[in-house]
Protein 1
Amino acid sequence: MSLVGSVRHVTGPAVVPRPLRLQQLPDEPFVLLPGIAVVAPDAAARHAAQRLAALVGGSVQAAAAPDTPVLRLRLLGRDGDDLAGDDLADDDGQPAAERLPTGDELPVGDEAYRLRVRPDGVEVDARTPAGLGHAITTLAQLLTRTTAGAQVLPAVLVLDAPRFAWRGLSIDVARHFVRVGDLEVVVDLMADHKLNVLHLHLTDDQAWRIDLPSRPELVRRSSGASVGGDPGGHYTAEDYARLVAYAVARGIAVVPELDVPGHVNAALHAYGDLSPSGRPTDEYLGIEVGFSRLTAALPATGAFLHDVFGDIAAMTPGPYVHIGGDEVQGMAPDEYATLVGTAAAAVRAAGKQVVGWQEIATTPLEPGTVVQYWDVHADPAPFVAAGAAGARLLLSPGDRTYLDMKYHPGYPLGLEWAGHVELRDSYDWEPATLLPGLPAEALLGVEAAVWTETLRTLDDLTTMLLPRLAAVAEVAWSAADRRDWEDFRTRVAALGARWDAAGLSWYPSPQVDWQR
Ligand code: ACM
């Protein structure tokens, strides 16, 4: 070790979210030499391999010379068979599957991974590129530098898979426009926390941020500004495609939201025939909610819903489109149900599955519809009933996962209508018991949300996300019996230095003894 130096961190590996199993092995650490080979025989593993090579300063190769220490990435068949068959035999000719000790199998699930670091190399196995990506995220958190500057990985066996299939982050790009480049930073942060759904709240009273071919006036008239008159903007179809591809390459699906039948002033400002008066409404750049609405009886309304949901579905490769449905004040239940039903039918006709905020649970829903819980003051009975009748519940409780809530009274950014949300509040809750009576199979996942009424810059956004995003990510990823606040606070402490190194603004919660 004298040439290599000693390892600085003595607290043990700090992986967030906490893996299903992380076993420290009694071996020496693996020392990575510059230019180390990242071996990925399967073409589908190449993107993950490039990411790993960039992380460690290595080079991607299809095969390695015998007896050379390598980082090896493998995709196994979903049935447990090696996809690449004999090509993946080890250097000594022994098939890959036989080298795995019993009891160390890759956990079930498409996103599972197995990571083994030994003094002579690293082996990563997964069933999908997304699983490989999660393993690389774990490797990034395990990587340390010795006092002499060498990169080392501790000898470990990690067996890991997510608890929930949907681990999301919703970003409001309507109240304040968020440029594609800034969203890419957010996507990278999501991948760093093993999140897999980016939900974009693309429209609201203040603005319509996505250019749709059938309705060009939406962005032409209604995207020029943000709350308070701040600069606006919109995404072209090319911008959106680029962002979706960037996210998909990191294992993240984009779920676009066009919020109807309330939160629609931007649409009414662009198209006068959506209002009973026949005239466009005024631009609105304040932060009130609940005052705007579509009207079921107007002939233009059905065509509008059909056009905009058809367009956004066609532009979105992922399986879900979000129809909003929240906070419509003063609309009769029948009219609300009609409008939600029309939007949902347009989404389904375009081949996508429907997501909506919790209010849609009061309307007739097709089985499989995703209901996103958010307002903890509402009577939960309709959501539990919807889950029992075949809907799936996505949990975004405002007092836990609304990451635009102030950390404490007087905090300069954010709002406080759902309470003050410190790091521990985001961490210390249990999805399975949040809605008592909800059938376990109806629980689809957990999603953080950040609304941007008061958030004007990327620094504002990341300051609200970090460190709470790490807490919500662990709630969504880690098994219930692997979660413990005291344990989390010691692990998350190591992330601060990484955020500093990445130049990210973040909130140094006094609940953690940060390593900086
Ligand atoms: C919401 O916070 N209105 C979904």
Protein 2
Amino acid sequence: MHQAPYPYPATLIFGIPGAGKGTQGDILKSIPGFFHVSSGNVFRQMGDATEEARMVRECIRAGELVPDELTIRVFLEHLEAKRHSGEFKPERDLLLLDGIPRAAVQCHLLRPYIDVKLILHLVCHDEDGMIQRIRRRAKLENRPDDYSVEVIRKRFAIYQRQTLPVLQEYPPSVIAEIDSNQTQAEVLLACLSALVPVFKANFPRKLPAGG
Ligand code: ADP
């Protein structure tokens, strides 16, 4: 296997917990040419066999961010494993990152590996709606971290304090603001309108696959 051809072009799916990042990510990842990574999902799949995995589980349970170095290491290991298995093909796939980077330090740590071409910023001001959505998902996906309103509010506060500054790390020209208070189809349309030109610019020879 060749050395990793860093930095990988990437799009960030960005927004406050409950804004609908996961929903859009799930739809977009079914389109050939996009490779989706949700850091929350990667963390939840770690189990609890190691000390690190138990630390991650505790951070998630408390609604706190996992330490930055650990986050980046786990993320890069996941990405490399997917490249080795052939599921992620850097010459073909635009990365869609959901939940990472989530703090300014993570942007710095990722800079040699990830080239952020576009940020889909899902904007939502309906706090009660987001809380409802998160609690519904908690039941459906068995995510006990997401059921306590107290923990959810803490995650909103952490988002404002630690995650929103991520936007300052990139030029405004790469940020597409998308009102997530629309139907899922409308949000998808807005995401695709921003994404497709970025995909074509980075993978100019890709032709649509049949099938
Ligand atoms: P949501 O989509 O509701 O924002 P996620 O599934 O992305 O939730 O994340 C769940 C939890 O995983 C977070 O509350 C945090 O504890 C941890 N986590 C996910 N991504 C990161 C990250 N990039 N840095 C630190 N912690 C993270």
Protein 3
Amino acid sequence: MSAPCTIATAPYDDQKPGTSGLRKRVTRFQEPNYLENFVQSVFDCLEGYAGATLVVGGDGRFHNDIAIQTILKMAAANGFGRVLVGEGGLLSTPAVSHLIRKNEAFGGIILSASHNPGGPDGDFGIKYNGANGGPAPESVTDAVYARSRIINAYKIVDTDDVDLSGLGKTKIGNMVVEIVDSVADYAQLMTQLFDFEAISALFKGGFGFRFDAMHAVTGPYAKEIFVRQLGAPARSVINGEPSPTFGGGHPDPNLVHAKLIYDEAMMPDGPHLCAASDGDGDRNLIIGRQCFVTPSDSLAVIAANAHLAPGYADGLAGVARSMPTSGAVDQVAHAEGMPMFETPTGWKFFGNLLDSGDITICGEESAGTGSSHVREKDGLWAVLMWLNILAVRKQSVAEIMDSHWAKYGRNYYARHDFEEVDAKGAGDLMNSLEAQLPKLSGHETPAGTIQSADMFAYYDQFDGSVTEGQGIRLLFANGSRIVYRLSGTGTVGATLRVYIERYEAKDGALDLKTEEALAPLIVLSRELAGIDRFTGRSAPDVIT
Ligand code: G1P
Ligand code: ZN
């Protein structure tokens, strides 16, 4: 007999969601009531969900199974009518977004710490998405945080765990738990957007393709879509079995953790396209044969070529990028006469622009690209978009990049991360830089004159919200740019991100090595901010 009960609890003061939800060590989430407090705080801040549908799923990381059972029991006790949960508790982040939209659900809960390591000593995370399928806006996450600091009880049904290992329906109290195929609906959506025939023909013609699922959530999606539906050889998908520890790896599709496919792609006879996605399937890595594509460039190429895919044949309403993302897509928007919007870091800021129809495609420098088909970035979508473009243009990735730069100019770009630095030192660095802003604009440097220097703030024209303190921008008269901001997703200390960019017009120097092109700006970025002095670090931990 399952009975709802109310359990007394004490509030936590460390449940402030960052750029993409609440992210902490697994061990923190294992503490009694930690997850429960957050979930109840979310439910307490929502209205009108009695009898409604909630979508729940995660990337399969350690603690996913346990957290899902708790959430199901709490959703039942709080009065939801139905929960759609992915088989085995697995759903990629874009798949959750799609299921919410397709089923007109009230919202969804995603369990993931994205590209952070998993396992008992790794990270866990939770995020609430609203009825549009996108991450809750800041007004909601702020309210949830405020609630989590005063909450004194949560509701849960005292019952056995639900077996999530097969499709079908069961009940907790009055609430229906429907276990759905994790892949089917998402795969169906992809067939509506992309030219599956052209991509199948590409594979039939011997196109070399490798996708690294990193033992994370995208394995089953990749096998179904690339191998079963599009006919790529089975060996195209590697690390395709999801695992709670990500096979002991780190599901961050960058050049360090996806080195295997990077090395393969750099061989003269390597695959024509190598790609990877992260823990929860929303990020993408794109590498052509001997041609790495930066996420900022990938966004620009997609914006310029999306019309080659059936779902985008009518062209794009507009595009958007997060502030630190390079201006490559701005060049496309400008040349093609499309509106371009600049938003703060984090996917949630694209939501209103997608909902209003002002933009069709958007992206971030951190390997996130997506479109109006869902309200999350979407790793497999980006890979399919590239396959579609390659299938139609019948050129190599390198040829596409060269012709892109020759048409729109090139934005050399790199991000330097100083990880796990002392939080106070990092805060002091940002404050000191902010205090210098007035005298930095007009300042002449060996890398050019700084034309303007400011702290980025965003006014959302749709909900009237203003988001401040989103990073310091130094814009140079020659089109170069240096941006500084602190990460909102780290779990230990602070992470300082420095984004460095140089623009060369289409008749400029288009064939430089990135390090070479950016060298003077890199030196300057360290000096201006006193990175060494404030953080004790003379070099970044990761360069992407
Ligand atoms: C990072 C990325 C950002 C992305 C977020 C969630 O956030 O920089 O673009 O939206 O992860 O995937 P950050 O750690 O920089 O706050
Ligand atoms: Zn992710």
